[in-house]
Write a structure and sequence with these properties.
The protein has five helices and eleven strands; from the N terminus they run E-H-H-E-E-H-E-H-E-E-E-E-E-H-E-E. The protein is an alpha+beta fold.
Length: about 160
């Protein structure tokens, strides 16, 4: 039986989530927090990002605070080496009213950002535009990066 790699599991789930119409921008409302929460749910990693007291998914600024308090912050170079590791990384920044969060897309591909004068990874982004894009298109300023978890290979049930 052939294995489905952790990288492919991450990619497949990101594409599945990006295909959902509920993340499409409505007026000035975007849904990056819900997108990331639902992606993490596929790997049973969503619990830290749910506000139990208020029975709701945390907003992006709350998720950023949770990441900063409870998760391992990493540098951009580690994120750029993400592909062979099958690790889930999030990119996040805090905003005045609300911040932004996206999932690092595991890929050998990198994008050169003239804005930041360096290579940046691809991200799965739900926001003004929902797609796989260079980090520099998803964030106005260079975000912080956080390691969430490793994803294991599983048996392909379709063999």
């Amino acid at each position: 039986m052939e294995k489905i790699t952790g990288i492919d599991r991450i990619r497949l789930e990101l594409h599945k989530q990006l295909s959902k119409p509920e993340y499409i921008k409505r007026g000035d409302k975007t849904f990056c927090n819900i997108f990331v929460f639902n992606f993490l749910t596929a790997f049973d990693l969503q619990k830290p990002f749910y506000n139990e007291a208020e029975k709701r998914i945390m907003i992006a600024n709350e998720i950023y605070d949770k990441l900063l308090a409870d998760f391992h912050k990493v540098n951009l170079d580690e994120v750029l080496e993400n592909y062979p590791s099958s690790n889930i990384y999030l990119a996040s920044c805090k905003g005045q009213e609300h911040g932004h969060i996206a999932v690092i897309y595991p890929s050998f591909s990198k994008v050169y950002s003239n804005k930041w004068n360096r290579y940046v990874p691809l991200v799965a982004n739900a926001g003004l535009e929902n797609s796989i894009m260079g980090l520099n298109w998803a964030f106005q300023k260079l975000p912080d990066f956080f390691f969430i978890a490793g994803v294991l290979d599983i048996d392909n049930i379709y063999d």
